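Retry 2 of 3 after timeout on previous attempt. Resubmitting C-alpha cells to design endpoint.
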C-alpha cells in the first residue's frame, strides 16, 4: 500500500475521498500546522506528500523522505515555499492548484480594493465606537472607481479576473506590468503594458497579482510607493514578500498613498503589535483570498487527483511546468 503523508486535515469531501483510497495515510490531525520536526520525522519512506503553503519543501525535507517519494502536491497556486530545483534534480513532479481559486481570489481582491478605497475599516470602527454622530457631508469620504485607472502587477489568471471585475465597477483604463507583455490577456481586458514606473505614476488602484520570485521580492519599497499618487490605493493578495513592509508602513503614515488592503503579510500571522494593524487606512485580512467552501474543496480534490496520478506513474493533471 502506498504511503501518503498529508500535513493537515483536508476539507470534508476531499478528506473523505482521500480516506476511501487504499493508502496508508499519515496525517497531522490537529488544528494547527504540522510542526517541521514532526514532518521531518514522518516523511521517511512516504510515496506522496500533500502539503500546504506553510510547509517548506527543500533539500532537507526531500533527503529525509528518501528515494521512493513520487510526487509533492501543494494545496495552493503559489509555490514559493517549494524549492523547485530541489524537486527537479530528483525528478519529482510538483502538483499545485491553478485556476480553481481565480474567482475567489479576484473577489477578495475587489473587496479589499473597495474596502480600502471607501475607508471601510474606519467606518466600522466609527460605528462600533460611538463616533457616528450624524450624517456629515465630508466625513469618511473615499474614492470611487468611475473613470479611474487600475494598475495590475502580474496580468495572469488572477490579475485578469480582477481587471474584468473592476471594469464592471467603472474603471476606464487598465495598465499592467510584469515579466513579459501578455498580448492576448491584454486585449481581453483592454490593458496597456507599461513600465513599472508608469504603472506607479498613473494608477489610482494598484493590485499585486504576481508570484513571489527573486525578481518581485520587495518590489514595492519606499521608492516605489513614493512614485504613486497620494490618492492611490495599494492592494496585495499575492505574497507578503513582494512588499518591503516597513516601507509600506511609512508610506501609509506619511500619506504617500491613501490606503492599503492586504491579504498577505510578512510574517504570517502578523504579530498583534504590528503597526499595519493599527493604521486606520490599512485593512489586513488573514490570508483568506481562496477561502470559499467551493474553492477549498476543489483545491484539495486536485491534490488528491495529483496523488492518484503520480502514484500510478502518470503525469500529474495539475502540475508546475517551469
Ligand atoms: C494561496 O495563497 C495560494 O497560493 O494558493
Ligand atoms: C444618503 O444617504 C443620501 O440620502 O444622500
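Retry 2 succeeded. Sequence:
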Amino acid at each position: 500500500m502506498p504511503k501518503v503523508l498529508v500535513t493537515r486535515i483536508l476539507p470534508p469531501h476531499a478528506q473523505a475521498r482521500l480516506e476511501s483510497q487504499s493508502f496508508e495515510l499519515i496525517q497531522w490531525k490537529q488544528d494547527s500546522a504540522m510542526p517541521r520536526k514532526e514532518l521531518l520525522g514522518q516523511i521517511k519512506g512516504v510515496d506522496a506528500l500533500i502539503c500546504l503553503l506553510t510547509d517548506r519543501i527543500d533539500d532537507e525535507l526531500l533527503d529525509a523522505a528518501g528515494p521512493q517519494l513520487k510526487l509533492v502536491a501543494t494545496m495552493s497556486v503559489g509555490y514559493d515555499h517549494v524549492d523547485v530545483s530541489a524537486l527537479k534534480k530528483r525528478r519529482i513532479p510538483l502538483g499545485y492548484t491553478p485556476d480553481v481559486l481565480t474567482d475567489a481570489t479576484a473577489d477578495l481582491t475587489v473587496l479589499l480594493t473597495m474596502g480600502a478605497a471607501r475607508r471601510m475599516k474606519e467606518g466600522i470602527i466609527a460605528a462600533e465606537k460611538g463616533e457616528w454622530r450624524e450624517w456629515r457631508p465630508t466625513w469618511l469620504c473615499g474614492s470611487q472607481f468611475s473613470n479611474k485607472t487600475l494598475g495590475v502587477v502580474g496580468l495572469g489568471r488572477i490579475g485578469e479576473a480582477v481587471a474584468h471585475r473592476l471594469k464592471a465597477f467603472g474603471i476606464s483604463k487598465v495598465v499592467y506590468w510584469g515579466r513579459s507583455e501578455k498580448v492576448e490577456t491584454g486585449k481581453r481586458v483592454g490593458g496597456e503594458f507599461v513600465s513599472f514606473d508608469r504603472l506607479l505614476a498613473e494608477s489610482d488602484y494598484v493590485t499585486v497579482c504576481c508570484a513571489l520570485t527573486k525578481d518581485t521580492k520587495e518590489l514595492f519599497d519606499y521608492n516605489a510607493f513614493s512614485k504613486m499618487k497620494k490618492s492611490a490605493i495599494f492592494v496585495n493578495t499575492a505574497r507578503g514578500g513582494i512588499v518591503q513592509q516597513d516601507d509600506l508602513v511609512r508610506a501609509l503614515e506619511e500619506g504617500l498613498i491613501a490606503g492599503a488592503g492586504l491579504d498577505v503579510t510578512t510574517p504570517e500571522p502578523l504579530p498583534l503589535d504590528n503597526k499595519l494593524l493599527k493604521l486606520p487606512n490599512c485593512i489586513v485580512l488573514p490570508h483568506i483570498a481562496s477561502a470559499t467552501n467551493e474553492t477549498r474543496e476543489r483545491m484539495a480534490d486536485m491534490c488528491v487527483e495529483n496523488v492518484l496520478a503520480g502514484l500510478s506513474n502518470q503525469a500529474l493533471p495539475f502540475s508546475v511546468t517551469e
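Attempt log closed. The domain at 3-100+293-311 is CATH 3.40.50.720 (Rossmann fold).
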